[in-house]
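**Fold tokens**
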Amino acid sequence: MINYLKIFLLLFILSFTQEITAQNSKFDSLVTGGIKQIYNIKFPEAERTFRQVIADYPKHPAGRFFLAMIDWWRILINLDSEEYDELFFQKLEDVIYQCDQILDNEPENIDALFFKGGSIGFRGRLRAYRDSWLKAADDGRDALPIVERASELNPNNVDVQLG
């Protein structure tokens, strides 16, 4: 009887592990697909993809961050227009807020550090494009140690290294 219990427990743990891997695989697939949609200037499709990421993974900041990146690319396509600036800033603030909530409970959460640092960094980039130099410099000063901390916690994370 004890052997059957051990086998059952082992199978249960293995099935749970496979479920986590499948969830990570689905998450990675959605995010990668959405990023490709952004690069291919398929913004409505990318927006649907990242809204799906938010729906499926509401506690992860990636969906909100990449929704902001759609607006970033809209801005880059026409830097003379400020049409998307406020929306972009608001989306970045949403990401920063969500990351702060995560970091309050998990100060070493690499994803939260990465997306918070990235959000502040992109906010600074747009401020620099808009000649708001002091605010851009402040954002750079704030973002760099956050991304460096994520790099210290996981030096093999390619995303953080490119961050």
Notes: The helical segments are 2-39, 43-56, 62-77, 85-105, 110-129, 133-153, 158-162. The chain has a mean pLDDT of 87. The chain has one domain: 30-162. The first helix runs from residue 2 to 39.
